[in-house]
Inverse folding.
């Protein structure tokens, strides 16, 4: 496929004022009739033909203003419909196409899932349904009539409000007409038809609109949708309070489906969800699942304003809706749960996914300037780094300035397709601040490295921070400009308390200094003793921080820092340095510092359990590899981590045993954050207590596995057992399977645990599991939980020195590519870190990637990843 460039953007030549759609649903021959009210765009290229997008379409009939069209007046291919000489500046074009939802294994456009009908149109799926100007800057008012056999599809849903429904006389069919008054691009279109159960509720908006809420699930699963409904209502209230945004239709529906390429989709008034992000009971869902449901429900709901009411001008602006909406869902979860713990979890995820992306061949700016396949840009950079950029704006402008900018953005651009420039200008205009340097965060890829050193002058009572910033080269961007980096910091005195921050005689507002030059010094005055600097508090900027802090400074910060994020970061950094040395040299350095810091945190009664669990969970193998950055031997990383776990587990055995007992449940299961935190800390203790593989540790895990009344406790106990080569392992796996065999989402966890075993037998085990009746290459959740988990979270086995792991994953990619290119490309992207491997493994990964790249007939999705990864 050829490259598309942001600089080539041109406004659409034709606009669609309204569109009337008529779907006659049929498993293999669905008839779609579309009536487009087309009008020449005064801002478009004069005299331009009408060119509509298609993708594998079969045209049945075409008419203009009611008159059938024939012959040379148009040209139709499966991928394009052209009217070279359209009749007038405004006319109605009627198009009839036939589509086969059963044959649609890509899960883009109209497809079937568990014999229901559903659609996925973002980014370019609508063109697989009918010919249309399938670009986000063409906004239209949609009316959709859906007709189906009543027995096959008793439920018929569309965007907006239901305006009419009834039976089709003399047939077994019925219909429903949905009207969405809000103009929208085609990617937000959706319809659903099928046999579904509904749970109902309602919400009263603050201006008094009564909204009917519905969550549709497979029959028999109604009881599992309660938490999602609760999260939806809390999200609706929160958006009113935090952003002044109210819901704008009479109906809000969510449909849970089991075959879905990603998490969920924000179609106007009709969100379609991967059922993983809807269904939960204590017996089947973990605490992570509950918080995932809460976050995704909120995210899709928040898109109603950031994405739908204000949409993107083109797909280069994807972060305009995604980064902003991730920021909004993070803020929601922070308000609903613990803010520091949420921040820690988000930064952990950011580093694991986005920092690694930024460090490898797939690095790209938050707003890319070129792409070949837009589906490959729904990335951690666009989403998570995009959210960090919005967070930095808030840090720079303060609460009130940020809110004023958001209000202006909504006021100016409601009903429009906007750009990043529009977004940034709203903040600049609302606050009077020049944000041109800040905007580099959207354009420059790569994670900035911030190198900081301190100089204490006892006589003058000053502390000087020397700061240097550098953005490493990334694909297409060999050199960079200095960025505007909001650096939140504190100077901690020997008593553990923050000293007032002043530069000269000027107090530092909110504890944030702005780094804007390649090299810069900050002179803090009025200090009574040498402070320890606490840098980048709350992870105020997504940078790699290199400082001259000593291990002793870090032990001090881990115990005293007023910023909880940096207490977490200090202990993590202590562990990380030990792991790096261990991996490089084959033997761990002295571990007392970590043990001391960990003991202090465990014993600190002012800290909540969830925080302790995060602080004490050692950095993952991926993070160590990323920090090492080159010549990584995953086996050495694994060995170092195992040795460190052993050291901490042994030294703190007594404390972990006490914690394990103290954190036991005191009442019936509740998914709230405090209870989840206790479970997290208890399960962390369970893991450390079993680290030696002692009979006692294994027996404790086995007992917990058998007695658990909730999935979190059961699955973590099983995870402990599976990581040890003990007879209890296979028995427990079998028992788990027997108990949950009818529950696909739970069996996914069973696949994942086995894919994560860090032992040479794992590859064969996975190959066997792919033949298991519960596995299917056609279902994205199954693929991700088995093969995806292997490639993303089992570094020693994926990167086996003999190359078998790489070869296996690329074979799966090639097989899958014929069915579902998006999921195949996502899986192939797990090779994004291969350049950091030691030479033998690097060569094996490269061979596997080359084999993919040289395969004829690849999808654009897989071809694009293979080419860039090798790039
Ligand atoms: N906007 C969708 C993602 C669509 C992905 C298409 N490959 C879900 C979300 O981010 O909310
Ligand atoms: Zn989103």
């Amino acid at each position: 496929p050829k490259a598309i460039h942001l600089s080539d953007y041109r406004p659409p030549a034709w606009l669609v004022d309204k569109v009337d759609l008529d779907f006659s649903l049929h498993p293999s021959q669905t008839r779609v009739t579309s009536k487009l009210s087309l009008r020449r765009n005064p801002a478009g290229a004069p005299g331009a033909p009408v060119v509509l997008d298609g993708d594998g379409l079969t045209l049945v009939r075409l008419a203009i203003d009611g008159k059938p069209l024939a012959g040379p007046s148009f040209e139709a291919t499966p991928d394009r419909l052209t009217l070279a000489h359209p009749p007038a500046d405004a006319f109605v074009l009627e198009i009839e196409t036939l589509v086969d939802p059963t044959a649609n294994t890509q899960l883009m456009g109209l497809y079937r899932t568990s014999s229901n009908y559903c659609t996925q149109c973002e980014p370019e799926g609508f063109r697989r349904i009918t010919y249309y100007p399938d670009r986000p800057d063409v906004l239209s008012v949609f009316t959709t009539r859906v007709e189906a056999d009543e027995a096959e599809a008793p439920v018929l849903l569309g965007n907006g409000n239901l305006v009419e429904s009834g039976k089709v006389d003399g047939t077994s069919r019925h219909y429903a007409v949905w009207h969405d008054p809000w103009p929208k691009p085609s990617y937000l279109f959706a319809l659903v038809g099928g046999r579904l159960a509904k749970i109902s509720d309602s919400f009263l908006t603050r201006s008094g609109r009564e909204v009917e809420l519905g969550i549709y699930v497979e029959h028999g699963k109604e009881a599992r949708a309660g938490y999602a409904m609760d999260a939806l209502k809390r999200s609706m209230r929160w958006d009113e309070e935090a952003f002044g945004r109210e819901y704008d239709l009479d109906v809000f529906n969510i449909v849970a489906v089991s075959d879905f390429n990603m998490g969920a989709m924000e179609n106007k008034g009709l969100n379609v969800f991967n059922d993983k992000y809807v269904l939960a009971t204590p017996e089947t869902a973990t605490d992570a699942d509950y918080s995932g449901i809460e976050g995704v429900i909120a995210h899709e709901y928040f898109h109603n304003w950031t994405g739908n009411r204000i949409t993107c001008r083109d797909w280069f602006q994807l972060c305009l809706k995604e980064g902003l909406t991730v920021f909004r869902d993070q803020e929601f979860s922070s308000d609903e749960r613990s803010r520091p713990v949420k921040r820690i979890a988000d930064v952990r995820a950011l580093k694991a996914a986005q920092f690694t992306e930024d460090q490898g061949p797939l690095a790209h700016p938050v707003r890319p300037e070129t792409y070949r396949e837009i589906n490959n840009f729904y990335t951690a950079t666009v989403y998570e780094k995009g959210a960090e950029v919005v967070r930095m704006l808030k840090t720079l402008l303060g609460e009130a300035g940020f809110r004023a900018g958001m209000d202006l953005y909504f006021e100016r651009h409601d009903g429009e397709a906007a750009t990043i420039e529009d977004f940034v200008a709203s903040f600049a205009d609302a606050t009077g601040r020049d944000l041109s340097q800040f905007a580099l965060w959207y354009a420059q890829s790569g994670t900035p490295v911030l190198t900081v050193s301190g100089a204490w002058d006892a006589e003058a009572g000053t502390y000087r921070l020397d700061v240097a910033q550098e953005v490493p080269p990334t694909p297409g961007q060999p050199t960079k400009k200095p960025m505007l980096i909001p650096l939140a910091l504190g100077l901690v005195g020997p008593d553990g308390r923050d000293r007032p921050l002043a530069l000269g005689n000027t107090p530092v507002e909110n504890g944030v200094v702005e780094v804007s030059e390649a090299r810069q010094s900050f002179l803090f005055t009025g200090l009574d003793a040498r402070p320890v600097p606490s840098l980048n508090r709350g992870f105020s900027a997504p940078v790699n921080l290199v400082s001259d802090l000593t291990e002793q400074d870090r032990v001090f910060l881990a115990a005293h820092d007023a910023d909880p994020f940096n207490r977490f970061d200090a202990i993590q950094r202590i562990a990380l340095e030990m792991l790096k040395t261990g991996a490089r040299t084959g033997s761990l350095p002295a571990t007392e510092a970590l043990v001391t810091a960990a003991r202090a945190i465990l014993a600190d009664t002012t800290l909540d359990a969830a925080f302790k669990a995060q602080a004490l969970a050692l950095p993952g193998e991926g993070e160590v590899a990323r920090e090492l950055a080159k010549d990584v031997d995953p086996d050495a990383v694994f060995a170092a981590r195992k040795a460190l776990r052993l050291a901490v587990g042994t030294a703190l055995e007594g404390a972990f045993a006490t914690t394990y007992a103290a954190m036991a449940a005191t009442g019936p299961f509740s998914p709230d954050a405090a209870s989840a935190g206790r479970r997290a800390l208890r399960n962390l203790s369970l893991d450390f207590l079993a680290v030696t593989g002692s009979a006692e540790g294994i027996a404790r895990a086995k007992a917990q596995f058998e007695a658990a009344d909730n999935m979190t406790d059961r699955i973590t106990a099983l995870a402990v057992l599976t990581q040890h080569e003990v007879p209890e392992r296979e028995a427990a796996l079998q028992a788990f399977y027997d108990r949950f065999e009818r529950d696909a989402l739970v069996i996914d966890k069973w696949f994942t645990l086995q894919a994560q075993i860090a032992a040479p037998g794992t590859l064969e085990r996975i190959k066997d599991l792919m033949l298991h009746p519960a596995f299917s290459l056609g279902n994205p959740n199954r693929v991700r939980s088995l093969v995806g988990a292997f490639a993303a979270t089992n570094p020693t086995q994926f990167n086996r020195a003999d190359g078998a792991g790489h070869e296996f994953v690329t074979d799966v990619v090639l097989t899958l590519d014929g069915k579902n290119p998006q999921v195949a490309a996502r899986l192939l992207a797990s090779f994004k870190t291969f350049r950091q491997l030691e030479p033998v493994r690097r060569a094996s990964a490269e061979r596997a990637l080359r084999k993919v790249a040289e395969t004829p007939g690849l999808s654009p999705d897989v071809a694009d990843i293979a080419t860039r990864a090798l790039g």
The pocket of zinc ion (ligand 2) is lined by residues 299, 303, 322, 325 (CB under 6 Å). The mean pLDDT is 98. Residues 380-413 form the longest helix (34 residues). The two ends are 16 Å apart (CA to CA).
